[in-house]
Structure formats: structure tokens, C-alpha cells
Design brief:
single chain, alpha/beta, Immunoglobulin-like, Rossmann fold, five-stranded mixed β-sheet, 22 strands, 24% strand
Length: 433
């Protein structure tokens, strides 16, 4: 045989096995590893209701950068969760039939799905309360957005909401199943709200088993619709709604805040706005004749259909929130900014609540331009504090106490139509509980 042919055969015999070895090695090296995930909350066997904050973690042995999505299934089809290595999903369980449900979750890295992780939970909707306790309270606070904003409000609004909720439950006969708190994105954060998310509000240890969820526009709308649906079943229902957030306005226009021909508006989580007129539409079906609504945010006077000095807003800009049977208050006028403590919550609401629970507000009256004034006549003190008396106490305190000199220009506003509209007929105060 030709020596050249022999040489070629020898080379082929040596190179091809090496090539095949390298090829198999590369194939083995590039073999994809499935993602791994964990459901952190809810735990297996948990009882849940209303809005359920499902969360967990995931990782890809090949590197988290290759994690594309987390998918979740409760009924028949897979839906996308938020995030990947740290993921969450809010399940709307309002109106769902009571019983046991399986939550299935899987992760996808672009090539393979992880093993499916599952927990079984029990949906247990609250039982209707007794006829002498038809009371509902909804607290809404959006405090710590966006990520790079130095005007975060910390956990102060949440702390105040929980203080008020605790008082309502312990002293005003509110059922825990009828108290809801919507805060930020549903997570509690380290460093008093400025740090990273730690855990959902639902799984955090708290004194009472009330309902927690995120202060998103969708959740606000769902919660208000649920509140209306439930409270409208009773003629003696009592409703309390408290909202704390950032208001929309222009601080460079110090006299009007740029709000003369604009509606008042507040930011919900993720910087979604809700205007006073939108809230008016949401509340249009509420039939409760004993309702107190407080919106504590900058430039919020429009929610009470007021501008400044208790003067009415332009008729085309009316919100539709004030109605017979309702007392609507705002922490500031439509033209002014407000203040909030990062640990104790918005200033007006602090003073209003302190006047209510301490009894110090008993006997406070309107005064000039609704600035509030105390009374020395015992006939105006009955040992009970109405929501209006607490308003005038807070308004007066802001104006008269030296420690609040920097905040007196907030000028909280009120639109009192309880029990019905009219200067004379509305002289009766709304007593909670």
C-alpha cells in the first residue's frame, strides 16, 4: 500500500476518536440543569381568604441569569408570577367557593421546567357578622415608591393603620374579618421601609388576624367593591375608609400647587394614580348612611370637594364622594402640602386619632373657617367624641400649638353631610362604633 495512504489513515484513526471525545465532553458540559424553586407562603394546609399574597424563591444551578419566568396554576391554566429568583403573585380569592385548592408553581430557564412544587390551602371566607356589628374598615397606604425617591414615608402609615385597626376591633366592635389593610406592594421592608423586602404582610406576625394586601389600584378597586357588596346588605352598616399616600401637585406653585383647574389625585403603589372623581365613582354604589372617609395626602382637598378655607371646589371638578350620611375629611387643602412621620404616620391623622381615643376632642366646634375651637360649655361635652369633633381638635391643634408652627398651613378640610346634607340637619356628629 502507498505510504501516503497509510499515513492518512493513521492520522484519521488518531484524530477522529479525539474529536468524538471532545464532542461528547462539550455535549456533557452543556447539558442543562433544571431550575429549583420553593413556595415560602402560604404554607401547606394554611387557611386563606380575600387577597392571598403567594411568594417564594427560585434558583438555576446554571446561574440565575438564565431564569426566565415563574409560572403558577391554581385553577386550569398557568399564569406568570412577578419576579424570578424572588417571586410573588396575588391571588384574588374574593367570592371563591370555600374549600381546598392546590397551588402549583414551576420555573422555566428557557430550556427546561423545574419540578412542580405544590401546596394545598383552604379558602375560608369570613362568616357574616351578627346584626349589631355591621361595620367595615379599609386602610390604604402607599408609602415607599419609587425605588430612587428620597421622599419615602417609611412604615409610619402602616404603623398608624394598625393602631387604628386595633382600636376599632377592641373598642368599637369591628370584626377582624371586616378590617382590611392595603400597604405598599404587600411586603414589609427592613430599615423602617427603606430597605429590602423581608416578608409579606400576611405572613408577618401581627396581633389580629385581619386581611392584608398590596395597595395597588386593582386591589383598591377589589376591596372597595367587596366592602360595598357586603355592607349594602344591612341598613345599619358603618363604613370607615382611611387613605394615606403621596398627593399629586406642583410644589413650585406655592399658592395653589397647580391644582386650581385640576382634580386632587393620590398615588397608589407602583405610581398608579387615583383621582378624587375616580374614587367618587368607585364609592357611588355605597349605601351606608354612616360613613367616614379620610384622605391624608398633599393637595388632597378635592376629595372633600373643598379647595382652601373650606371653600367649595369648581362644580365641574366635584368628586362625588361627599353625600348624605358621609363625613369626608382631608389632611390638607387642595393647594397645600402635608407632612408625615416615617414611624408614626401622617400628621393630621395622628392628631385626629389622638383626639378621638383620648377624649380631648370632646366639645370641639367648627370655629371661623372651620379652623376649630374648644368649648367651655358643658352642654357641648357628652363624654363621646365624634369624627367631626376630632377633626376640629386636629385643626385647632395645628393652628395653636407652637410645636406645629411649621405645619399649620396644611389646612385640613371637611365636608360634613351626616346624617344628611344641610347646615342645620348636619349638626349631629358621627360617632363611630
Amino acid at each position: 500500500m502507498d505510504k501516503r495512504i497509510i499515513a492518512v489513515l493513521l492520522v484519521v484513526a488518531i484524530i477522529i476518536p479525539i474529536f468524538l471525545i471532545n464532542y461528547n465532553f462539550e455535549e456533557e458540559k452543556e447539558e442543562n440543569k433544571k431550575p429549583i424553586l420553593e413556595i415560602i407562603y402560604p404554607y401547606n394546609g394554611a387557611s386563606v381568604s380575600k387577597i392571598v399574597a403567594i411568594r417564594g424563591s427560585a434558583e438555576d444551578p446554571d446561574g440565575n441569569n438564565s431564569l426566565l419566568e415563574i409560572e403558577l396554576k391554581i385553577n386550569d391554566e398557568w399564569v406568570l408570577a412577578n419576579g424570578n429568583s424572588q417571586w410573588n403573585y396575588e391571588w384574588n380569592a374574593y367570592g371563591i367557593k370555600e374549600g381546598y385548592y392546590t397551588i402549583s408553581v414551576r420555573a422555566y430557564d428557557g430550556k427546561d421546567y423545574s419540578e412542580i412544587e405544590e401546596v394545598e390551602v383552604r379558602v375560608k371566607n369570613p362568616i357574616t357578622v351578627e346584626s349589631d356589628s355591621h361595620k367595615w374598615a379599609l386602610f390604604i397606604a402607599a408609602s415607599n415608591f419609587p425605588k430612587n425617591n428620597d421622599t419615602k414615608l417609611g412604615n409610619g402609615p402602616l404603623n398608624l393603620a394598625e393602631r387604628m385597626a386595633e382600636y376599632f376591633i377592641e373598642n368599637l366592635d369591628y370584626s377582624t374579618s371586616n378590617v382590611m389593610i392595603l400597604f405598599d406592594d404587600g411586603f414589609i421592608r427592613a430599615d423602617n421601609g427603606y430597605g429590602e423586602p423581608i416578608e409579606t404582610l400576611q405572613e408577618r406576625a401581627h396581633k389580629y388576624d385581619i386581611s392584608y394586601a398590596a395597595a395597588t389600584k386593582e386591589n383598591v378597586e377589589l376591596s372597595i367593591k367587596y366592602l360595598i357588596q357586603e355592607s349594602n346588605q344591612f341598613d345599619d352598616s358603618e363604613v370607615f375608609i382611611w387613605i394615606s399616600s403621596h398627593g399629586q401637585g406642583n410644589q413650585r406653585q406655592s399658592i395653589t400647587g397647580g391644582k386650581i383647574l385640576e382634580s386632587s389625585a393620590i398615588f397608589l403603589w407602583d405610581e398608579q394614580l387615583i383621582t378624587d372623581q375616580e374614587l367618587g365613582i368607585l364609592l357611588s354604589g355605597l349605601r351606608s348612611r354612616k360613613t367616614c372617609i379620610i384622605v391624608d395626602a398633599c393637595y388632597s382637598g378635592g376629595f372633600a370637594d373643598k379647595t382652601i378655607l373650606n371653600l367649595p371646589t369648581f362644580f365641574l371638578l366635584k368628586s362625588g364622594i361627599p353625600k348624605s350620611g358621609r363625613v369626608v375629611m382631608t389632611g390638607t387643602s387642595k393647594y397645600r402640602i402635608g407632612w408625615s412621620s416615617t414611624t408614626n404616620g401622617p400628621l393630621f391623622s395622628q392628631l385626629w386619632f389622638d383626639g378621638l381615643i383620648s377624649g380631648e376632642a370632646d366639645g370641639f366646634r367648627k370655629g371661623l373657617f372651620h379652623t376649630g375651637r374648644p368649648t367651655i360649655l358643658k352642654i357641648f361635652k357628652d363624654g363621646k367624641v365624634s369624627v367631626e369633633e376630632a377633626f376640629y381638635y386636629a385643626r385647632y391643634t395645628l393652628k395653636k400649638e407652637d410645636i406645629f408652627n411649621d405645619y399649620e398651613k396644611m389646612e385640613p378640610q371637611i365636608n360634613d353631610q351626616y346624617p344628611v346634607d344641610g347646615l342645620i340637619l348636619s349638626s349631629k356628629g358621627l360617632i363611630l362604633g
